[in-house]
């Protein structure tokens, strides 16, 4: 009688473990989708000049480092967008990869950007890394770093 009970218990524990792994994988996939949606929303908001959306997605302490190596605070980045100093015309993100660490997510990818910077048309391909934190039930970007790809 002990063997069937031991088998039953070990099977139950294994199934419970597998269900937790599956739930974790499902949660991870859900977070990955949320991060990718946030990236898409921010890019579209930059193109549409929807400043409240950009402002909501960027954390107050966000540091934004452009491919030119210019580093800006959230306030500086938004000021450039609002003044028209920097205008995004198109953004195409590819090769996206999300890594989740609890309430923090790291996103890497490639971005092909068409913009106007200081009145000059700019076409640039970059690799980027972004860090997001979950705050008050939503994901906010706390850091952005991009590197220009060789032509």
Give a brief rundown of this model.
The protein has 151 residues and is α+β, with helices and mostly antiparallel strands. The protein is built from 3 helices and 6 strands.
Distance between the termini: 72 Å
- Average of the residue pLDDT scores: 89
Largest sheet, spatial ordering of strands: 2-1-6-5-4-3
Number of strands: 6
Largest sheet: 6 strands, mixed
- SSE sequence, one letter per element: HHEEHEEEE
CATH topology: Nuclear Transport Factor 2, Chain: A
Total discrete domains: 1
Proportion of residues in helical segments:
40-55%
What are the segments in which pLDDT stays under 50 over at least 5 consecutive residues? 18-23
What would CATH call the architecture? Answer: Roll
**Radius of gyration, Cα only, in angstroms?**
21 Å
Proportion of residues in β-strands: over 45%
Can you tell me the CATH class? Alpha Beta
- The helix tally amounts to 3
